[in-house]
Amino acid sequence: MSVLIDTSVWVDHFRNGNDALVDLIELDLALTHPMVIGEIACGTPPAPRIQALASIGLLQPCNQASLNEVMEFIEREKLYGLGCGLVDMSLLASTLITPGAELWTLDRRLADLAGRFGIAHRPTLH
Question: From which residue to which does any coiled coil extend (predicted)?
Answer without folding.
Answer: none
